[in-house]
Amino acid sequence: MRSSRIAATALLGLVSLLAGCGTSAEAEKSIADVRTSVDRIQDEMKLESKAVAARDARTEVESVQLVAQLEAENLKKYASRAPAETQEFADAAQTWAAAVATSRAAIIGRAPEATSTAAMLNVRLSAKRMDEEAEELGVEPWLKLDEY
Fold it and tell me: Which of 38, 46, 48, 138 is the most exposed place for a label (fewest CB within 10 A)?
């Protein structure tokens, strides 16, 4: 009787361990998907910064807008299937990508200064939230807002 309890306890522990591994793999996949999208946008933003310095930014601003729109859609899909532990990170990344696209649309459309300023502030706030979620998950390495 005692050996069957020990065996049942060990089996229960093994099942819990295996279930935990599945969740962890899902979380890692979710984080990797989000990172890929965020990295694509950040890469375009780096090119945009160089173009601004060279005073030839319109094409790069348009490129950032298009990539951010595409990745916002991808991130929306990732967020919809993200496990609970990464849901807020995926949502924050999607919000950030949409904010980047909106801010670039304001720049391209020559929106009033107040609108463009508000759009850029939204990007910063969204990035800050995304950074906080990444930190909470322990995502390493992670480029924070002021590092790209």
Answer: 138
